[in-house]
Amino acid sequence: MSLKPILATLLVALLAAVVSLPARAQDDATTERELERYRQMLKDDPWSNPGLLDADKGEALWKEKRGPKSASLEGCDLGKGPGVVDGAFAELPRYFKDTDRVMDAETRIVWCMETLQGFPRAEILKRPVSKANQQGTELEALATFVASKSRGAKFNAPVAHAKEREALALGEAAFYRRQGPMDFSCATCHGDAGRRIRLQPLPYFAKPEEAKKVVGEWPAYRVSQGTVMTMQHRLADCFWQMRLPLVDYASDLTVALTSYLVSQAKGGEITAPSIKR
Amino acid sequence: MHRLILIPCLLAVAVSAGSALAQKKGRPSPQAVDKLVEDGFKTAAPDWKVRLVQDETQKACTASRNEPAEAGAAAIRRREKATIKYPEDGNLLGDWKKGEALAQSGYGWRYTDYPPRQANGGNCYACHQLDKKELSYGTLGPSLAEYGKIRKFAEPAVKFVYEHIYNPQASQPCGNMPRFGTSGFLTMDQIKDIVAYVMSPDSPVNK
Question: CA B43 → CA A5, A106, A107, A137, B11, distances in Å?
Fold first, then answer.
């Protein structure tokens, strides 16, 4: 572990103090300025990204012999063959013959931990994602590692298999489904260009240019949470705000929504782990 | 007020072809989407799973992607209008100061909000500009700055705001705004307080 990510983490801790102030305009503006300053620093020196600590942690976990079967995840097939991590994230979600399911990176990691390492599924899913100011989870670290191995690649998930087409169509339909006590769908907030909640700009996912800019940022280091947040977690957070129950991690629903988002972002660059508010 | 009403009217005219519930070609059936959603929340408690089930209006708005055809829109207006309840004394204006606090708060009904630690909030600022001094406002809904003043604090406007917070689908079928009164998310008194925040001459919204 180099010194730079540690320094970065300290800086981010300062930023976090700014972010956690009440969400009033003055503070929002200050936060946005600080974040912008930080993003510029990251551009100047990509290695100061605190999310890379999670990627490092994930890489160590990936290679370590663990679980009842005392195996590493190096034999995990993320779609480009067993052991191939480079560029795999850019082509997920995709259909896997061995499970007869479309899976995203996180769902596939869970499956590999189950089958290769022998961890019981319930144990893996006991705490899939971290809450604010908790230590990051293994799944978060592993997902960040896998995504980081596609940094610079462009989204190009296959849509050849019937189940891939089905997941995409279902994901799009789910995106527009209104439900819950607030009548919200994903499109309520993300169905028009140039909108925002409070001061937070909202990406318009029907527009590929906007999807391309943001989908590849996840998993992202969230300053306000102090940890990396994965796409599965990001979607769960939207459902939370929609007043729906906690969505099941690695469900067909969250995978289908990811298929839709990634399809809208096709050709967009993967910049994960990025840094977010 | 004009803008609020005009947009859905135009939409209803523009999208007059086809029934609102007709399934668009190539799209999965509503039943398939229902199942996907249901299966996505297998671990949820039964009293939470009911939130996943759509009512007639949600179904119609989903099927038409919020652009219901004329007949569908009229049915929504009729059905939703019938759910609006009014205070017995006819007074629709509450306390604007309480309304301001409600406009700022987004609390309520998320799974982290149980047991409730405070009253539910209207979260108006998430989507609307109101008091011009509050710079942290969203733009999903129209600006409501000086809303009452522009309408000369007229009684029909007061009534419209009350009804629009209680159930916006009654005038704007398949609009984005939640049905705060009909869903029971806000109480009648809370709605009156927010009406006062928007419509009272003393409110900073109208300064």
Answer: 37, 18, 17, 20, 39
β partners of residue A77: A82
Domain boundary pick from B36, B51, B81: B81
B126 vs A198: CB contact, 8 Å cut-off?
A: yes
Q: Do the chains contact at A169 and B26, CB–CB below 8 Å?
A: yes
Classified as helix, coil or strand, A259 is helix
Strand-pair category, A94-96 with A200-201: unpaired
Q: Enter the ipTM.
A: 0.89
Per-residue pLDDT band at A226 (split at 50, 70, 90): confident
Pair (B42, B118) in one structural domain:
no
Which domain CATH number covers B154? 1.10.760.10
- Name the DSSP class of A100: T
Mean pLDDT for chain A? 90
Considering the domain architecture, whether residues B134 and B172 belong to the same structural domain is answered as: yes
Give the count of alpha carbons within 13 A of A103, CB side only: 19
Question: Closest partner residue to A241 among B57, B58, B110, by Cβ?
Answer: B110
Statement to judge: residues B104 and B193 lie in one domain: yes
pLDDT value, residue A206: 95
Nearest-angstrom CA–CA distance, A54 and A136: 8
Average pLDDT across chain B, whole number:
91
User: Which of A179, A195, A253 shows the shortest C-beta gap to B139?
Assistant: A195
Range of the domain at B133: 96-206
Q: Parallel, antiparallel, or unpaired for β A200-201 and A196-197?
A: antiparallel
Closest chain B residue to the Cα of A200, Cα to Cα: B138
- Average pLDDT on B121-143 reads 97
Q: How far apart are CA A16 and CA A27, in angstroms?
A: 12
DSSP A67: T
Separation between Cα atoms, residue B168 and residue B181, nearest integer Å: 10
Name the residue in chain A with its Cα closest to that of B25.
A169
pLDDT tens, residue by residue, B11-36: 443 343 344 444 677 799 999 999 99
CATH class of A3-276: mainly alpha
Where a domain ends, among B21, B47, B81? B81
Confirm whether A189 is a catalytic residue. Answer: no
